[in-house]
């Protein structure tokens, strides 16, 4: 992902991740009440997100008198975070990224069960 999300795009992604279902444009506008979007600007934002490959048109739904598209995320929040990490550290190998980020994540606090699962995943490599 060479183009990170704008603040408005990220807000929409957070909503799609939280809801974990396709949403229509009116639903997005309704569920993000702190934004004052007109229908044209939200349409441009959604189209930009489609071009970036982070959402896709999932189908159609009844919206008032007509029908409108529904949009679904194509990446999870963790996949998005990993893509940002890759873009932010292009000079590092995958090994260097893992060696650098894993201690930082573990320092954030993980359970013994998580450590056990990590060891199992590493042993499977």
Question: What do you see in this structure?
Answer:
The chain is an alpha+beta fold and 125 residues long. The chain has two domains: 7-73, Arc Repressor Mutant, subunit A; 90-123, no CATH class. 58% of the residues lie in helices and 15% in strands. The chain contains six helices and three strands, in the order H-E-H-H-E-E-H-H-H. The chain has a three-stranded antiparallel sheet. A hairpin with a 2-residue loop joins strand 2 and strand 3 (66-73). The radius of gyration is 18 Å and the shape is elongated. The two termini are 26 Å apart.
What would a concise description of this structure say?
The chain has 125 residues and is an alpha+beta fold. It contains six helices and three strands, in the order αβααββααα.
Topology:
Blueprint: H1 7-19, E1 23-24, H2 25-31, H3 39-52, E2 55-63, E3 66-73, H4 77-88, H5 94-107, H6 112-123
Antiparallel strand pairs: 1-3, 2-3
